[in-house]
Amino acid sequence: MFQKMNRGNFRAFGKPIVNIYVNDKKLEDWISFQVNWNGLGEIDDFEIELQWDISDEPRHEFFYSGSKASSIVVKGTVTVKIEAGFEEEEIVPLMEGVMDYPEWDFSDGETVKIVGRSYGAKPYDFMETVKYQNKTATEAFQEICQKHGLTPIVPVATNTMIGEYVNDDHTSVAEEMSHWDYVLYLAEQEGFISRIKGKEWYFCPLNELEDYQKEPLAFSYGHNLRNLKMKKAPNEARNFTVEVVSWQSGEKKKKGTRIVEKEVIGNPEGKNSYTIRRNIPNITRAQAQSHLKNICSELTKQQFSGSFETDFFQELTNDRRIVLYGVGMELSQIYHVDTVTISGDKDSGLECSIKFTNDIAH
Q1: pTM higher than 0.85 for the full model?
Q2: Using CA atoms, how far apart are residues 8 and 12, in angstroms rounded to an integer?
Q3: Fewer CB within 10 Å: C terminus or N terminus of the chain?
């Protein structure tokens, strides 16, 4: 069923439309932009290039530095919203977030690049000693969302107290950690995923995501994609050292015990050697060995991954699966979208690059 060619649509024929807002004001003179949807467990990020004025009579109130004053980009908080689509077609949101820092380039004219992350940056940067053992994962998640001004989307409520599985795997959550990492820990325990879109934070099984439930988007070699590259699981040709590292705290004024369990898999004759290390606090050596066995089992699966470039499709998200046609048996199959990069400028319109895999990385 996957061998037929020319499956999948081309993009809409209308003129590309990109709306970029800085502090809720729409920009008309942006130069270029790039949005990166970075996959499960990662923070999405963006950058926008704009004209900069060194002047006391700037063209725009946000993008200048003068002899008497400078704009908010130099010394304030900048929020960004980016959306895109096509004329007489749906306009969809690509990114909402906050600037991390600006970069100026005066080598050929005067420009500034606003570099930032999605609103996931808030829980990612917020560190504290979390104490939710007497709550369920969804209750703790909802409290964390409220703290960061995000709307929790929880289609499936959990009923196990966090303290129960903390005790079961001997993991310590008494150490200071970010709210982002803590939610990822809860998601791993419950078999959920964590995803932020705009100001909504999803915490649920993968198959509960609306886009994941939709029919996979079709792409065909030689039809609606460019520069297709694929590879088999890297352990087929590489030498992997897998390490599980733990630390069991000792009594007061003692250093405690460091536990390291490791195994080498893949091709021992391979030229390239890679180390995969996972840090799991306060587990026993037997538990570290069990974690190691599971990781090695995942790595030795028959995995395929790849990338290609295509036009921008409003229907595409990194929650929605794709189906690849026209590349023969085994390779033509349904894949999960890992990362998506959407970019554009005033001259060339919208472009999209996709990385995909047939195995979900939790």
Answers
A1: no
A2: 12
A3: N
